[in-house]
Specification:
- With 397 residues, the chain is of the alpha/beta class.
- It folds into 2 domains: 4-172, Phosphoglycerate kinase, N-terminal domain (Rossmann fold, 3-Layer(aba) Sandwich), CATH 3.40.50; 186-383, Rossmann fold.
- It contains 14 helices and 15 strands.
- It has helices at residues 34-49, 76-83, 95-104, 120-124, 127-134, 170-183, 203-209, 223-229, 244-256, 298-309, 330-344, 355-362, 376-383, 389-395, and strands spanning 13-17, 52-56, 88-90, 110-113, 139-142, 166-168, 190-194, 215-218, 260-262, 266-270, 279-283, 292-296, 313-317, 348-351, 371-372.
- Bound molecules: adenosine monophosphate (AMP).
- Adenosine monophosphate (AMP) is lined by residues 196-198, 201, 220-221, 238, 293-294, 318-319, 321-322, 324, 354-355.
Length: 397
């Protein structure tokens, strides 16, 4: 894998695709600078080598229009503050003005281009737009994992104009390595913990990872489709009746491939989808009518704990219960604690995709697991086994 460590940027201009799609408040202040901080090591390496960095990103969804509220000029001060360098800004991302600003850029300096998505050509992956972007640097660096699953001009097509002069930034390289550690080189036993609301949104992931794992823990709302398919009573729990055959075929495939599936045995059932509902612990396959399972029960958590603590590689995607409500957050918090303990004992743990990342942040597990993926859609597509165009474009000669 070619990373920026394979280049010396002295006297070179690096064109860097970053993900500075950060949230702004109504006065255009950056309210969360995590993504800027995440790109800092890559930018600093380029500057310390004696080169300069031309940063390009999208912000929001201007859909090919110049929307002043979505100008990247709003974040220029924040980027300067995070990098400790006064960042220059040019109010275009291609053409004469941008090219002039790049030509004037000195070693050690950083230039931020205007929002790429002010041009509809960006999201279309237009080749001549990508070629224009290609005029803005000597070496192309992709450090935006969050957009690596998009075949856009700046994430994918532009790489074609830098044969032998393109590489992954540190952030993107770290994401690729973390996913690889779970999907290809992970030490066994490998355990995947899948939760969340629906089987239908996780089916491609399950099918892709079955051949790579030893244990599959199923939690959250997905549980009930599996339980009902096996003849259990799920009361009013969330259930996809039209996915019951699929659930049975997953269980069958898991069996054929020697994967041990661990479904909840007991649940916290509630008489309403409400934090203040009445609750009781019931067997997962004997939930009374009018009641719904909203979190894992104590026996279930004891089983999950044993499996997680015996694992050497752990992937977690999707909450174990309705963690947004305090009364049903215990399962998700407990699983976070088990993963924390397993990680301290030497396991590699990766959390990625949607709500599990939100849960991990909310409950403070971010620094306790080995890696939290920043790229929602890109992470899910990787787990589904898809090749991400932004990554493939760097790997191609
Ligand atoms: P997903 O986006 O598929 O990962 O689903 C996440 C959502 O699933 C969260 O908002 C949880 O509240 C929800 N969820 C988890 N467990 C349950 C459950 N037992 N019943 C209903 N929703 C659930």
């Amino acid at each position: 894998m070619i990373t920026i460590d394979d280049f010396n940027f002295e006297n070179k201009k690096a064109l860097v695709r970053v993900d500075f799609n950060v949230p702004l408040d109504e006065d255009f202040n950056v309210t969360d600078s995590n993504r800027i901080e995440a790109a800092k090591p890559t930018i600093i390496k380029i500057l310390e080598d004696g080169g300069s960095a031309v940063l390009m990103s999208h912000l929001g969804r201007p859909k090919g229009e110049r929307v002043s509220a979505l100008s990247l000029s709003h974040i220029c001060d924040k980027v300067s503050e995070v990098l400790g360098v006064q960042v220059k800004f040019v109010d275009d991302c291609v053409g004469e003005k941008a090219e002039r600003a790049v030509a004037e850029l000195q070693n050690g300096e950083v230039l931020l281009l205007e929002n790429l998505r002010f041009y509809a050509e960006e999201e279309k992956g237009d080749a001549s737009f990508a070629e224009k972007l290609g005029h803005l640097g000597d070496i192309f660096v992709n450090d935006a994992f969050g957009t690596a699953h998009r075949a856009h001009a700046s994430t994918t097509v532009v790489a074609g104009f830098f044969p032998d002069k393109k590489g992954f930034g540190y952030l993107l390289a770290k994401e690729i390595k973390a996913i690889d550690k779970v999907m290809a080189t992970g030490e066994k036993p490998v355990t995947a913990i899948l939760g969340g609301a629906k089987v239908s949104s996780k089916i491609t992931i399950i099918e892709n990872i079955l051949s790579k794992i030893n244990h599959l823990i199923i939690g959250g709302g997905m549980t009930y489709t599996f339980i009902k398919a096996q003849g259990g009573k799920v009361g009013n729990s969330i259930c996809e009746d039209d996915k019951m055959d699929l659930a049975l075929s997953i269980l069958q495939k898991a069996k054929e491939q020697g994967v041990q599936v661990h479904l909840p045995v007991d649940v916290i059932a509630a008489d309403d989808f409400d934090n203040n509902a009445n609750t009781k612990i019931v067997a997962v396959d004997d939930i009374p009518d009018g009641w719904q399972g909203l979190d894992a029960g104590p026996k279930t958590l004891a089983i999950f704990k044993e499996v997680i603590l015996s694992s050497k590689t752990i992937l977690w995607n999707g909450p174990i219960g309705v963690f947004e409500m305090e009364s049903f957050a215990k399962g998700t918090i407990s699983v976070g604690n088990f993963i924390d303990e397993a990680t301290r004992n030497g396991a590699f743990s990766l959390v990625g995709g949607g709500d599990s990342v939100a849960a991990v942040k909310q409950f403070g597990f971010e620094d306790k697991v080995s890696y939290v993926s920043t790229g929602g859609g890109a992470m899910l597509e990787s787990l589904e086994g898809k090749s991400l165009p932004g990554i493939a474009a760097i790997l191609e000669a």
